[in-house]
């Protein structure tokens, strides 16, 4: 009897009890794309659609052991990293993942919540640049996060071009700078590659507050498409298309009193079965 396997994605991120962001968004996204989701919890934020109330840490040894337990058993086809809010946590994750260089990593440098709440300690940024940037296949900062990384204000598309190149010089392999906060009718994101190529993606902007977890969703979607065998450029394109649709299909739904979630399951796919070689 022929045996199969599922394309799998490991999500390493924080918790969101309101279900819109963090590991919950990651698992929903990966599942909706027909992949198998495994997960590692990095932190326990107390939050809802209105904001973050507190962040409780997970012991660093527990994070390391969670990663090793998954990697020893269900080796993922791609890894997504989200919330890492202390330098020690960053170092723990990077040092553990260095043992598995064959697995592509999509890193969403979560620093600022949709509500505007800063989620990251200043001392963590240097650790991220030093240890996580070199092992990540792609990083996906939004404009607020890019401002912190590039140490400049970003208000325009021209600013995004300057910031993206500055971030690329910090040691990243590739950068997708998300332009959702641009004051314009279109959302423009820029994909920067080490060879100097910059690719622009434009999408219609919807009038909605339901964007909670959009960054988590995008990085997970890109990882999901990589797990399916797409190259990075294809995965970025498909991932953004997916997020655009999740926002469109959830824009008129009222869940919570603040920034509502996306509709991750507007068109869920069955789990993909790949033949075992």
From TrEMBL:
Pathway, according to UniProt? Cofactor biosynthesis; thiamine diphosphate biosynthesis
* EC category name: transferase
Q: Name one Pfam family in it.
A: Phos_pyr_kin
Recorded source organism is: Flavobacterium arsenatis
Q: What EC designation does it have?
A: 2.7.1.49
The name this protein carries in UniProt is hydroxymethylpyrimidine kinase
Q: Name one GO molecular function term.
A: phosphomethylpyrimidine kinase activity
InterPro entries (alphabetical): HMP/HMP-P_kinase_dom, PM/HMP-P_kinase-1, Ribokinase-like
Where in this chain does the record put each Pyridoxamine kinase/Phosphomethylpyrimidine kinase domain?
Answer: 16-263
Q: Which UniProt keywords apply?
A: Kinase, Transferase
């Amino acid at each position: 009897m022929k045996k199969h396997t599922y394309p799998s994605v490991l999500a390493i991120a924080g918790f969101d009890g309101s279900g819109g962001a963090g590991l919950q968004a990651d698992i929903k996204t990966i599942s909706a794309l027909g992949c198998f989701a495994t997960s590692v919890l990095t932190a326990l934020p107390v939050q809802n659609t209105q904001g973050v109330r507190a962040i409780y840490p997970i012991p660093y040894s527990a994070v390391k052991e969670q990663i090793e337990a998954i990697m020893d058993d269900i080796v993922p086809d791609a890894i997504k990293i989200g919330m890492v809010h202390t330098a020690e946590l960053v170092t723990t994750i990077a040092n553990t993942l260095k043992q598995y260089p064959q697995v592509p990593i999509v890193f969403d440098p979560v620093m600022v919540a949709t509500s505007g709440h800063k989620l990251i300690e200043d001392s963590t940024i240097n650790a991220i640049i030093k240890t996580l940037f070199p092992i990540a296949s792609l990083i996906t900062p939004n404009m607020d996060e890019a401002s912190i990384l590039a140490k400049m204000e970003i208000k325009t598309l021209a600013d995004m071009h300057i910031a993206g190149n500055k971030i690329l010089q910090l040691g990243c392999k590739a950068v997708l700078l998300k332009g959702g906060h641009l004051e314009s009718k279109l959302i423009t994101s820029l994909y920067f590659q080490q060879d100097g190529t910059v690719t622009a993606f434009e999408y219609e902007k919807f009038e909605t507050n339901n964007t909670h977890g959009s960054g988590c969703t995008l990085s997970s979607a890109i990882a999901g498409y990589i797990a399916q065998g797409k190259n990075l450029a294809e995965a970025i394109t498909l991932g953004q298309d997916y997020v655009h649709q999740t926002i469109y299909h959830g824009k008129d739904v009222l869940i919570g009193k603040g920034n509502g979630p996306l509709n991750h399951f507007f068109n869920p796919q069955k789990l993909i079965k790949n033949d075992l070689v």
